[in-house]
Structure formats: C-alpha cells, structure tokens
Amino acid sequence: MVIDQVIVDKMGRTLIARGAKLDEYQIDALKSMKITGVYIREGGPEPEDLKEPEIPKPVQNKIEQLKVEDKAKVMLSESVKKRVAEGMQYLYSNIESADFSNAADNIADDLMRSIAENDAIAVDIGMLKVSDEYTFKHSVDVATIGMVIAKKLQFSEKEVHELGIVGLLHDVGKQKIPNEILNKPEKLTEEEFSVMRQHPVLGYRILNGKQDISQEVIRGVLEHHEKINGKGYPLGLKGEQISPYAKVISVADVYDALVTERPYKKPMTQRDAVEMIMAMTHELDITVMRSFLNSVILYPVGSIVQLSNGETAKVVENNAENLLRPKVVELKKGKVYNLAEDINCASIVIR
C-alpha cells in the first residue's frame, strides 16, 4: 500500500512521507505509536518520475563516452538507517537519561563511518530523502549534510563528529514546546511564533547540564538560528560572533526544512531550495554556503531530466561550480548540452 498522508511525531517531524510504500517495519512502528489506521492511495497511479525511453545505440555509446561519475557520496545502509532511527527515538524520548550523551555519540559514530567507508565528499540530496521514512529524519539529514560540509571545510575528525551531534540535537528544545504550537496545521500567530523561537534556548538548557557534551556543541545548538546580518535569534549575533558549528548547521537546516513536507506545507523542489539558499548571502555564511553547493549532487549522473526546450536528456557530468547546470545528452539524436559552459545553452534549464 502507498500511504497518502504524512505521518509526523509529536514534534512535527516526518516519520513516514506521503507516497511511501509501507513495509512491515513501518507498519509495526505505526502500531507501536497507537496509530490504528492511515489513508492510502487509491485509484490510478500518481504520475511517476521520468522513465528511461528507448535510447538508440549510437546515443547510448555517446553517453558512455562522455559519462563522468559523481564524487563519492554518503550511503546509509538499511541497517544503519534502522539503528540511527531507533537511536534518535531513544534520544528524544529520554532527554534526562544518564545514557543520553553516549546515545548521541553512537549515532554520530554511525554517520561518521558511513561517510568514511567510501571517503564521501558529497551528498546525493535525492537519495538522502529516503530517510523520510524513518524517525527524526530532519535531524539525521541535517547532521549528515552538516558533516559532509564540515569535512569539505577541513574540520578535524573530532570537529566533524561534534558537528554531527549538533545536527542531531539542534531541535531538542522543541521537546519543551506545547504540541498545539508545534503541530499547528496553519501559520503561527506572532505570539505563538515567539514561543517557537525559544526552542534554541530550551535546547541549551537541556544540554547545558550534561557533562559529556562539549560547550562547543551546546553553543552550536543555541546559535543555529542566528544570521550573519544579526537578524536571527535568540541572541541577535552577527558574523564572527556566531559559532562555526552553528554556521554550518544553519545552512543544512534551512535547506532540509525547505524540501521537507510538513502537515501545513508542501515540500519545495530541490532545485528551488538550492536557488533560495544561493539568494541568502545576507543571512548565511558565504564560505559554508559555497561548501554546501560544492558538496551536494542535485542531478546524479544517469538521471533522466526534462529540458525547458521540451527535450528529454540524460545527465553525463556534473559541474562542481554550478550544480543546477550539468552536462546532458539528448536521448533521441544524442545532442550534447553543456548547460554550464556553452553560451548557446544559456536559455535552457532543467525543468
């Protein structure tokens, strides 16, 4: 069965995405949460992603000749996803536990190993959304993206690990926000938003008494909504006043929030989210932003894409300096479009 609603936890985090095919693991999880029924998709199938058409042999040969594999990407195995999901469930349900810090360390270790196993320096942000089907996906996505950015910025191994913990715990303060505000299906009032903006301070208070969590991690959690122009919260810090960890998590958090479905909003497309990030130079650290843009893969090599001129093409090479404009090959006659470098392609975009 394909679920036709989004399932969220009491913090408003996506547990199972709308459109996911339910498996026994997810059904058992729903039962354990006392959810006894869900809406499923009926009638005809939803429009699917572009399917690969029949490609003439000469075009196939050209694609193979021009194909340049993407940079090594983070891969989360099913066993790691399950272990991380269970760890996150424990973490956010047992914030007073003596084992809290150790649980956070273990999850960060799992993510570190997944990055190290194939020397990953990139994130396929389409594949990462597989974690929509798992508990606390937003925090895991933010942690993973943040760790890859930190690695790109040449943070030490200890700093990458701590950055992962900041990502995992950056929203822990929402545990103290009333559910009627957290899960409100429409826009918050000014008064409600004022309460919501307290979650970084509440997270700071939760973590500050835990001796095994470093002050750098706690500061990253406190400051993850600060903006370079001083218009963030809760402290209104500017530029270099903001923790390096918070600067990284801020970019990952904004991106993932934009592409995540919530009860009150549809997800933004990955392309639109990236373009919005690129326009936020007054709010986000420019060095971190560039590292993010150089670390994500929007259209993996092999993807089938629709061009604005109506043609269907396959991606053969990504451009590290412009992830929105890869090199593609049209699938009928084999015409090559180097979207980033060919001036004749300036008016063509991927739809």
Task: Please give a structural write-up.
The protein has 351 residues and is of the alpha+beta class. It has 2 domains: 57-69 and 301-345, no CATH class; 78-297, Hypothetical protein af1432 (Orthogonal Bundle). Helix content is 42%, strand content 7%. The protein contains 13 helices and 8 strands. It has helices at residues 24-32, 57-66, 78-93, 100-117, 137-152, 157-169, 179-182, 190-196, 199-208, 215-222, 244-259, 270-278, 286-295; strands at residues 7-8, 14-16, 123-124, 296-297, 304-306, 312-317, 327-330, 336-338. A 4-stranded antiparallel β-sheet has the order 5-6-7-8, with helices on one face. A two-stranded antiparallel ribbon has the order 1-2. Strand 1 (7-8) and strand 2 form a beta hairpin. Helix 5 (137-152) crosses helix 13 (286-295) and helix 10 packs across helix 11 (244-259). The longest helix has 18 residues, at 100-117. The radius of gyration is 21 Å and the shape is globular. The two termini are 29 Å apart. The model is unreliable at 130-135 (pLDDT under 50).
